Amino acid sequence: MTSPASPAAVDHALVEAATATARAHSHGDRHTMAAAGRSADGRVVTAMNAYHFTGGPCAELVLVGTAAALGIHDLTTVVAVGDRDRGVMPPCGRCRQFLFDYFPALHVIVGTGPRLRTVPIADLLPEAYAWSDHQD
User: Fold this and answer.
1) Which residue among 13, 34, 62, 78 is least crowded, i.e. fewest CB within 10 A of its CB?
2) Dihedral angle computed from the Cα positions of residues 68, 109, 125 and 90, in that order, rounded to the nearest 10 degrees
3) pLDDT digits (tens, 9 = 90+) for 99-110
């Protein structure tokens, strides 16, 4: 899939929310990534990853659960940020698929510095497997 002719604006407040969460709540090697998401009604939710050698959840996965616990089921934009001021980080493959399945119209903030941009989640998964297409 290709990006729309005029890409979505970068939600800098969302990037700052994730950055502030990473700075405030990073804890050694266990919590190294933060994520922030904006709901359709404008609310912002933040979360941290929970690293574990067995494959603990990424910040984006924790974000979706946290949002659901707050009654938010319609995220429109997400971003992940690394601790120690590593900046915006793209979602891993598992998170890309998960986010696509939960929110097929989602936008994700990716890139660094002047190349920071907002792209549809589908652009991060060319030839995506749509889990919902295979459910009865």
Assistant:
1) 13
2) -90
3) 999 999 999 999
Q: For 51-80, how does the pLDDT look when each residue is reduced to its tens digit (9 = 90+)?
A: 888 888 999 999 999 999 999 999 999 999
User: Which residues are designated catalytic?
Assistant: 60
* Tokens describing residue 45: 């939710």
Question: 88 pairs with which residues across the strands?
Answer: 81
Helices and strands: H and E segment counts in the chain = 3, 6
Q: Return d(Cα 95, Cα 116) in angstroms, integer.
A: 19
Query: What is the pTM (predicted TM-score) of this model?
Result: 0.89
